[in-house]
């Protein structure tokens, strides 16, 4: 099976959907759309503005995985599931997930744009510059104006294409190209949605307008029953 997930699986860990959160922070002196602060243009032209914005709005270093992530991770550890997520918050990594495809990257993979060296979060939180060479650090996430990593996109397509059950959890499936992954499923494969808001998606087999934490709290990750 494959879990297709988004912001709704991380909100129980205290991470707001950045689309709603950053709305609060765009009323400052340089009033620009959120998309600008999270764009390749901003990173290149105003790296300090980009750095301040992501530090203030995207990083929640104290966040811990919740029951949705830990149960989904347990399914992947049993080789029964893959996860394709839009989330960049590292919580699936913290939960020990395998077969994990982070479609939009990971905020906690941070590298120097000059030399490619990887640094940890505390180094980045201290400064946007890589001390040895003065290069500007950045998180390995897909910004507006950048493309999805082709290897991650291909692995995500393969996961959907080979799945015999697709579970959409905590995402409205409105952001492309992520939403287009559904097109790669086998035609007979059931698509189940667990989301607080109803989705108008073609081809959905079953839809549960429920709090996903309650669902995954009750799920047992037992042996596969044939
Ligand atoms: Zn460097």
UniProtKB/TrEMBL annotation:
PROSITE patterns: SIRTUIN (PS50305). The keyword Repeat does not apply. The keyword Signal does not apply. GO terms for molecular function: NAD-dependent protein lysine deacetylase activity. Keywords: Acyltransferase, NAD, Transferase. Its EC number is 2.3.1.286. It comes from the Bacteria. Residues 1-226 form the Deacetylase sirtuin-type domain. PANTHER family: NAD-DEPENDENT PROTEIN DEACYLASE (PTHR11085:SF4), NAD-DEPENDENT PROTEIN DEACYLASE SIRTUIN-5, MITOCHONDRIAL-RELATED (PTHR11085). This is protein acetyllysine N-acetyltransferase. It comes from Fructilactobacillus myrtifloralis.
């Amino acid at each position: 099976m494959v879990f297709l997930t988004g912001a709704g699986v991380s909100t129980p860990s205290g991470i707001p959907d950045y689309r709603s959160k950053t709305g609060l922070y765009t009323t400052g002196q340089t009033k620009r759309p959120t998309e600008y602060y999270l764009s390749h243009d901003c990173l290149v032209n105003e790296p300090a503005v980009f750095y301040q914005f992501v530090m203030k709005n995207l990083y929640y270093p104290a966040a811990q995985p919740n029951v949705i992530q830990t149960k989904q991770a347990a399914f992947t550890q049993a080789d029964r599931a893959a996860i394709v997520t839009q989330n960049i918050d590292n919580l699936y990594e913290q939960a020990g997930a395998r077969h994990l495809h982070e479609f939009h990257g990971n905020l906690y993979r941070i590298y120097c744009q000059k030399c490619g060296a990887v640094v940890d979060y505390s180094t980045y939180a201290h400064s946007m510059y890589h001390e040895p060479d003065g290069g500007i650090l950045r998180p390995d996430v897909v910004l507006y104006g950048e493309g999805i990593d082709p290897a991650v996109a291909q692995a995500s397509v393969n996961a959907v294409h080979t799945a015999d059950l697709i579970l959409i959890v905590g995402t409205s499936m409105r952001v492309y190209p992520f939403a287009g992954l559904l097109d790669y499923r086998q035609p007979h494969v059931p698509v189940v949605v667990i989301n607080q808001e109803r989705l108008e998606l073609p081809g959905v087999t079953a839809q549960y307008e429920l709090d996903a934490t309650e669902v995954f709290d009750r799920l047992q990750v037992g042996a596969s029953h044939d």
